[in-house]
Amino acid sequence: MTSLIYPPKPRPGDRVAVVSPSAGLPGLFPHVYELGLRRLREEYGLEPVEYPTTRIMGADPRDRARDLNDAFADPTITAVLATVGGDDLITVTPHLDDEVLRANPKPYFGYSDNTNVLNHLHRLGIVSYHGGSVLVHLGRPGALHPLTADSLRAALFTADWYDLTSAPEWGDEPNDWNDPGCLAEEPAMFPGAGWQWQGPATVVEGPAWGGNLEVLHWLLAADRVAPVASLAGSVFLMETSEELPPAVEVYRMLRNLGERGLLATFPAALVGRAKAWEFGRRLTPDEKRAYAREQRAAVTRAFAEYAPDTVLVFDVDLGHTDPQLIIPYGGEVRIDAAERRISVRY
């Protein structure tokens, strides 16, 4: 297992790229997008630089890749932030210029469909950052969530170890961006019950790898995941999307990773809190709790069959729920199951 390179960090006052390699949703929801840009300036002291396809839905994959290549190549740009996810970034990464990316490593922030880019940078030996969306998190109605804000600030500007914090309250029922007045009030939040731990009371340390489970499955089908041996010892990150995959499919996807030999190589896994509500599937509180239980059971079953000694931590705020903690993708993660503590090195 080879250590990846941490890119140099931006400083307040720097220019940072804002790109939409997955979907140009800023063009559909400019009020949310402009709030995210304003917070980048006012809360973090960074100057966002927008690229040509950032507000264009359905832009050609080659054009979206060109924006990424240009952002990495520009010596005045010190970090790259994705606006949001989507579902076709797998068609963009083949057009990336790997020589440019290797020669100009920069912190890249994104999650969900951006798992494609995180995995691509990982294969090039570059640490990136799972989390941070200009629309979803910087454009959060009402105010930035304090845990998101602090984690993102630490990931952007520091290179130290950072202790993750379990959210005392969380949400997965966002405000409707179609309503121009959606930004006035914070979204609904619910009491947190802390992280849920399974497995041996041991300490695990290793580089993070994984991301959105559905996207990882696409990457496996496209043969774009590194050899099993090179991922051995990684801390597995796993979260599911707003498409709310059923528990049986979550189990099957993990079973496929197990058959490939991956699960057995992971000494620990951080499992994101399962999003259990979407505008097209407005589950009741009881239905949401049942969905979350079924998801946890599916993950537990797969690891019990393929990696029974893996430390599992459930309900970590690293995916499609609110708040969102930033995880260094390819960077160091330390999980102390005895002390119930998770630390990351940004």
UniProtKB/TrEMBL annotation:
Single GO MF descriptor: hydrolase activity
Span of domain LD-carboxypeptidase C-terminal: 205-335
CDD domains the UniProt entry points to: Peptidase_S66_mccF_like (cd07062)
Domain LD-carboxypeptidase N-terminal, residue spans: 16-131
InterPro entries: Carboxypeptidase_A_C_sf (IPR027461), Class_I_gatase-like (IPR029062), LdcA_N (IPR027478), Peptidase_S66_N (IPR040449), Peptidase_S66C (IPR040921), S66_fam (IPR003507)
Gene3D superfamilies in the cross-refs: Class I glutamine amidotransferase-like, LD-carboxypeptidase A C-terminal domain-like
Keywords, comma-separated and alphabetical: Hydrolase
Cleaved signal peptide residues: none
Keyword field contains Hydrolase: yes
Stated family: Belongs to the peptidase S66 family.
Protein's name according to its UniProt entry: LD-carboxypeptidase
Phylogenetic lineage: Bacteria, Bacillati, Actinomycetota, Actinomycetes, Micromonosporales
